[in-house]
Design brief:
By secondary structure, this protein is α+β, with helices and mostly antiparallel strands. It has a domain of 91 residues: Immunoglobulin-like (Sandwich). The protein is 15% helix and 31% strand. A 5-stranded mixed β-sheet has the order 2-3-7-6-5, with no helix packed on it. A hairpin with a 4-residue loop joins strand 2 and strand 3. The radius of gyration is 23 Å and the shape is elongated.
Length: 133
């Protein structure tokens, strides 16, 4: 009988700890924590080729006021199979998400990416402008 009481006490204790530790933390549809941060910008950008080596010919120019990213790539780069990588302000997220290879070959219509702030209230659309060296 003592073993049953010990087991019962252990189960009740574990349940109490689990319930007390679970707090209602706000998360978004991606399971990311929503914070109070209002910062919303791109701080760095990288563009990798299909071999995961940079195809940039120069450092990208990121204008947070005009919300543009201007990048010069090496002549002959296959822009249908590149991997863009963004560094964002803390707690921000990118929409659309970059999940793999991306086709950026339509230079006449720059790809647009939206940076969403940590509090999910501020959205800034950046244009990714690419030119060849």
């Amino acid at each position: 009988m003592t073993r049953i009481y010990k087991t019962l006490i252990a189960i009740i204790s574990i349940t109490a700890i689990a319930v007390s530790c679970s707090k209602d933390v706000p998360v978004d549809e991606d399971g990311l924590l929503i914070t109070e941060r209002q910062e919303c910008f791109v701080s760095n950008f990288e563009l990798l080729g299909s071999d995961f080596v940079t195809v940039r010919a120069a450092v990208p120019v990121i204008d947070t006021t005009a919300q543009t990213i201007n990048v010069t790539v090496l002549f002959g780069t296959d822009l249908k199979n590149v991997y863009p990588q963004f560094t964002l302000a803390t707690d921000c997220k990118l929409d659309p998400k970059v999940t793999g290879r991306t086709d950026l070959s339509d230079l006449a219509n720059p790809k647009k990416y939206t940076v969403v702030s940590g509090n999910r209230k501020i959205r800034k659309e950046y244009s990714l402008n690419i030119k060849f060296q």
